[in-house]
Give the backbone structure.
Amino acid sequence: MSVKFPKTVSIIAGGRIIDPASGIDAVGDVYLKGGVIDKIELKKKALKTTAEMDAERSIADARGLIVAPGFIDVHVHLREPGREDEETIESGARAAAAGGFTSVCCMPNTDPPIDDQETVQFVIDQARDAACRVYPIGAITQGQRGEFLTEIGDMVAAGAVGISEDGKSVASAEVQRRAMEYVRMFDIPVISHCEDAALANNGVMNEGTVSTLLGMSGQPGAAEEIMVARDIQLAAFTGARLHIAHVSTAGSVKLIKRGKRDGVRVTGEAAPHHFSLIDRMIAESFNSNLRVNPPLRTEKDRKAVIAALADGTLDCIATDHAPHSVEEKDNEFDKAPPGMVGLETALGLVGKVLVVGGFLGWPRAIELLSTNPAKIVKVPGGTLAEGAPADITVFNPDEEWTVAPEKFFSLSHNSPFAGWSLTGRVKMTICRGKVTHIDE
Ligand code: DOR
């Protein structure tokens, strides 16, 4: 029987190699050695037959598949420390590998929060044998209380690659200004969850026609946009590097476009759910897995987010993977906590909504999933150049599959995509030269 994916791999043969960082999009073989990319041979015809593939068990047959630099997710929530029933660093990394990710950045809203050197070190220690690289994001303020800055330098020294108050904004512009002044010393980004708490007013969904019809409390798009505008202004003022998390409105897209045009060092991400789902779907099902922050917006917003991913206004796709327990999610819509898991459906949604939808091609999708996120948080990977780490994702761009959350590697299953048919399936993930996932 043919061994399509051996447990150890020294050659990935005959796939379509797409590496935007080195300008490669061609059929060829990728050679791995000692945890790095040894060389790439393009349009090589030698490794052709299945018999030849079988003869050497460390050759992975990638014919008909795409071979890409490993995906990098700059925005996940692993619930360790604190809620290990929902996700651990180990289980989250396993889910990441299944989704084609070789690196993830984990947000600090754990319990206790990742707000000092010891907790950053704890995450790094816990991740030592994990199925992907795990980079902590440190909190901006102590206890995420919005008052006093954390010891940013200590956290960076321990391995934090950015700071964020994710889950909320830093309400005080003065505190946010100081954070931005500090990060300039380390050239790490401030990752901003943009939500004016007063204006959002605990709204459980987008404020608009649908929330009015349903009689649900809404938060307006302006609650996000006000903070996007403030933080772009502060980035211009301080010269800091700003990354806007989970952009969800057409207005935020416009502000980021203008900031970039003005030379502000601002980048932005979009989550798969914001380019795949809209608020109207809540009225159809009241599925509490559709509750997320920022909330699902309108079709106009969704289209603007997609256009921004295609035209370069937004720089990367990040899942905002947010595991929650069945007990908490199996609740009325307004009582359930916001968030959905996303690591294991990201590629399939990119394939179905963005690529099959005709908005962008696989090379741009790989830029958004790997090349650009590597640059934003300055981590190894994001390229298949010779000498780069052997962090690689092999996927079938045409394979259709049905989402079955009970089969997820994540400890949590709060996905609104259950039963959806997606396009694009991860077949093999390799991190540091080791196979971390095979789709069998
Ligand atoms: O929906 C969300 N869930 N948005 C956030 O900003 C936080 C996240 C979580 O931690 O559950």
Notes: Residues 2 and 50 are 7 Å apart (CA to CA). DSSP finds 15 helices and 19 strands in the chain. The radius of gyration is 21 Å.
